[in-house]
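FORM 12-B: Structure-to-Sequence Request
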């Protein structure tokens, strides 16, 4: 028997017996895999879904259940709140948020079909209350639908596309709407006849002599089982936040921080796809956030690095703030606040008070910064904030406000000990139909992928917005399922 490896497909000619036969095999049962399975089954394909855990979930189930939606004049929730959101503005924002890594074809397609995707989600039973929750939030603590979930109203994005809130959250009391979202998608997939096998770990793809992927090998009860997939295999296995070897090779900056998010996200789908000839792109990209820095009133604060210099407009999305913070020299940054805007951080944030004083000069001294550094930064900032201006970073009212009511405090965000959660964004290069592409841009026959094992809508850590990953997972999971079902 030939060797079985993640990194090299098993020859179909060596398969002695197929243990399972289906049209489409889906690997991974998070939101991506569920949506891929639903669409493949709706397209008339026989679908088997294999999940290495004991049930559905993945990183999707650990999320807030928020999906980035807009365009077409606006969703019902957007319009009810008075926001008109054009398809052109949504596409422009998605491209800006993708930065140098943006896949423009995916951005344009999603912008055109976002409202239709919203309708599809509702058809699957996903409930939305339909109201708007104003202000700056990590996610709703009640069952509200619409929030500002990115940097839409902050510079430079607000000058690229007309701002509109686009974070649509499943109706669910409290945080953690991802679990009920996945539960509803799971129920829909099973209702369509998708056959689910849990505790089944993918260990190799199977290719024929024409290099077409015709199946997958899964390990069940410590036995390798051969699955023939007549129309294709869809990889929906998540990123690689829990694979230290892959992180050291591709994404070493994640070792500055220590709180990965995910559920067995070990990069297996990426390894399988590359082994079959796929191209992995933007593997250095990752999302990170210390989210408790940004709810109001802390958002009125000023961030500085260890040299006492500002580095970001603090009114943008908390993940963008955190990602730019990681780029700073040193191992920590500071959030500066006055007494009018100080709020005790949650204990799990791991943020500590590093310095206090009745003047910014005293705080500067307590932080052991060079005289005239932090104090000069704050003098410049306050002078212009009183005029309603931020000439360096273009922070805007009402978040822009002088910090001149002592006493003053510096909160320390230590990259190693504060809660900087993260997950990876790089992965397999795919077409808008979810086909895995090789380095020449040609499809790897019979192989599809979606979600965080691919490079999708959330391609650039510095431009991430909450809801982009679930938007990418659910929409392009559907695309992959539909295409695979066509054979």
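FORM 12-B RESPONSE
SEQUENCE OUT:
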């Amino acid at each position: 028997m030939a060797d079985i490896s993640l990194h090299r497909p098993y020859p179909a000619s060596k398969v002695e017996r197929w243990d399972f036969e289906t049209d489409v095999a889906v690997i991974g049962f998070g939101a991506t895999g569920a949506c891929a399975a639903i669409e493949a089954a709706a397209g008339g394909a026989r679908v088997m879904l294999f999940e290495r855990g004991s049930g559905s979930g993945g990183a999707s189930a650990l999320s807030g259940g928020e999906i980035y939606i807009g365009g077409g004049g606006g969703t019902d929730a957007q319009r009810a709140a008075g926001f008109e959101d054009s398809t052109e503005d949504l596409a422009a924002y998605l491209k800006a948020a993708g930065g140098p890594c943006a896949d423009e074809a995916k951005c344009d397609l999603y912008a055109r079909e976002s409202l239709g995707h919203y309708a599809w989600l509702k058809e699957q039973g996903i409930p939305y209350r339909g109201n708007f929750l104003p202000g700056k939030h990590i996610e709703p603590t009640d069952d509200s639908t619409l929030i500002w979930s990115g940097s839409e109203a902050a510079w430079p994005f607000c000058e690229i596309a007309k701002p509109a809130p686009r974070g649509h959250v499943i109706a669910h009391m409290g945080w953690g709407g991802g679990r009920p979202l996945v539960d509803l998608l799971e129920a829909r997939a099973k209702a369509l006849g998708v056959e689910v096998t849990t505790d089944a770990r993918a260990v190799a793809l199977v290719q024929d002599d024409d290099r077409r992927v015709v199946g997958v090998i899964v390990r069940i009860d410590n036995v390798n089982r051969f699955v023939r997939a007549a129309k294709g295999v869809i990889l929906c296995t998540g990123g690689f936040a829990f694979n230290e070897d892959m992180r050291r090779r591709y994404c070493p900056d994640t070792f500055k921080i220590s709180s990965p998010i995910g559920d067995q996200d070990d990069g297996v789908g990426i390894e399988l796809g590359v082994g079959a000839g796929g191209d992995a792109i933007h593997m250095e990209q990752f999302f990170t956030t210390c989210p408790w820095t940004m709810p109001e009133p802390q958002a009125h604060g000023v961030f500085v690095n260890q040299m006492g210099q500002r580095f970001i407009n603090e009114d943008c999305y908390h993940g963008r703030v955190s990602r730019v913070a990681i780029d700073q020299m040193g191992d920590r940054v500071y959030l500066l606040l006055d007494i009018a805007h100080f709020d005790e951080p949650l204990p799990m944030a791991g943020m500590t008070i590093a310095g206090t004083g009745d003047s910014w000069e005293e705080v500067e001294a307590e932080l052991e910064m060079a005289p005239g550094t932090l104090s000069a930064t704050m003098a410049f900032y306050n002078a212009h904030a009183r005029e309603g201006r931020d000439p360096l970073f273009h922070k805007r009212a009402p978040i822009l406000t002088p910090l001149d009511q002592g006493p003053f405090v510096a909160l320390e965000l230590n990259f190693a000990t504060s809660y900087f959660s993260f997950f990876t964004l790089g992965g397999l290069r795919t077409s808008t139909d979810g086909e895995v592409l090789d380095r020449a841009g040609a499809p790897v026959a019979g192989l599809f992928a979606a979600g965080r094992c691919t490079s999708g809508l959330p391609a650039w850590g510095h431009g991430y917005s909450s809801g982009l990953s679930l938007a990418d997972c659910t929409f392009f999971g559907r695309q992959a399922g539909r295409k695979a079902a066509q054979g």
